[in-house]
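Appendix B, record 7
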Amino acid sequence: MSSVGAGSNASDVGLIVQGTLIFLSAVVGVCGYIVQARSKQKQYLRETQILHLRQVLNDIIGPAQSLGSTAKTLRAEFYNAVAYKGRGMTYREQVDDIFGEGALRLIIDGEMNEYRRFVSPTTEAEMMAEPHGFVAVQYRKFIRIFVKEYHRPLANLLKLKHCSLPLPSREEFKRRFPGHKRGTLRKTFWLWQCGWTAEMEAIISDEWDKGIFTTWFPVMCPFPTHITSLNTGILNDVKNEIERLTWGGIKMKDKTTMHQQTQMNLKALAKEKAELAKRTKNREKEEQETQGTKVGSSAVVAVDVTASKYANAANVKTNDVAYN
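Structure tokens (predicted):
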């Protein structure tokens, strides 16, 4: 009887141990599933965020920055080729002439945030006195291109999608543009740009197209001094955020991170340079061989000519002896 009881106890202990192991394995399985599910969820959220940022970069802020910077370049060229042609003035001197002494410093420091003119009061008076003169005609042409090609497309983009852009924090905005009195209205630059463009278009159609040349700049809406600077800052912020998320190991649909793509580009560039160097070396070798062949041919010709001369001389001498 005692042996039967001992065997029964051992069997019970075994069942308990087995049940405990099964329970623990189930717990481990559930925990692993939860961890895996959360990991996939985080990865999905990060990939979604990257896709959203890339869409913002490609569809909104990238084109906005391109349009603004190109228009800014056009304005600078107008100053050099028309307004200050042949005067040898630096950009700082040009800006100070238009907006007052020390204006460039105020612009750089973010203290001046709006333009009420694009030319100096002296130039504006000249255009008013001679509306068909060189400067006035070129100014109107510059403004038409400035608006039609660049700022109208930019305004169309911003007035519909500026709410989708990731603005800097209020503190960062005030740090970058301390002269802007409306720190809580960080979209003001974009709103000014849309209003300025519409008002400038009205001046062109209602006045300039009808031969009325008394207004040279919008009266209601100023031109935002730092709209390109703001767009460039947001562009860099979006790029940096995409790079941060991508370097975290999250891959896009193409299964290639930005770092991997950069490495691939560098390898391709190195390979291309190596192939170019190899082709250059082969070409130089072929040219050397070609020159050597030419030299050899010249030598053979020279030897043949010399041998021919000696042979002719010998024949002449033999004939002379035979004649004598």
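Remarks on this record: Confidence is low (pLDDT under 50) at residues 249-259, 299-303, 305-324. Residues 60-251 form one domain.
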